[in-house]
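Entry for the shared binder. Reason: the reviewer on the internal report wants the predicted structure included alongside the sequence.
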Amino acid sequence: MKKTNLFISIIAVIVIAAGGFLFYSNKSQNANPSTSIGSNSSYDKAMASGKENVKNEKYDDAASDFNKAYDLKHTAQAKAYANQAENMSDAITYGKRSKYTASLNSIANVINEENGYTVLISKAKTLKKVIKTAYDNYKTTIHPLLTAAQEAESKKDYQLAINNYEQILELPYINGKYYQAIKSNTEAKLKEDKDLLKKQSSSSSSSSQSSSSSNSASSSKMNGEFSDSRTVDGKTVSSSTQTEIRNRLKALGYDASPWSPQDIINLYRYAFAQGHKTPDSITKSDVENYLKPSN
């Protein structure tokens, strides 16, 4: 009888010990977020939130969501998505500051990310086209005008600098998102040069004024004899048409840089009245006759 009781006691101890182990094991699992069911649910929610923010192009929020998911569960996918979202945010920031090379580098990081999110890759490729277009416009048009303006400033030819800055501000794309830093800087420089020109004009001698006039080709024609209207034959002369006229002037052997946008339009109006109704039909005779003080 005593042996039976002893056997029963041993069995009871084993059962209690096993129950305690199972309880401790289950409690430990719940305390470890990387292995718990609740953790998987939170991870999935964070990833889903990140994808929704990507869809809405809220890349900072998306990066935060993906990093949260990675903290919950260290997956290569969550880390890759977070890296991509951060690089997309950087690319846009750089683009708005007109730092196009840095922007394109960040975009490349998004596209080349291993285990990356296909939606982010697609959006990065779209952004790449936009930034590349802005960069091309900067290199081919904006930068040469800025350089010309700076050279004119170094020679204290503020009117020429003003003309170049005005050309930048008349570009059809200058109000776009990725030109705002350039536009803001150009407006500030334009105001500064106008103030300097005003001071220079008030203090300069008649001889320096005469020299300035000759550099502007013809004072009578390029300082108000013609109307300030921006239209020819009832139609506004676009920036692209003005560029064509400047190119025509260069082809005819004239330096077009001192000509302001209004000068270009006035010349076009004169040539148009002579029957030359397109920029490439403007003749050397048109230019010479336009510049004559007697006209």
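Summary line for the report: DSSP finds 13 helices and two strands in the chain.
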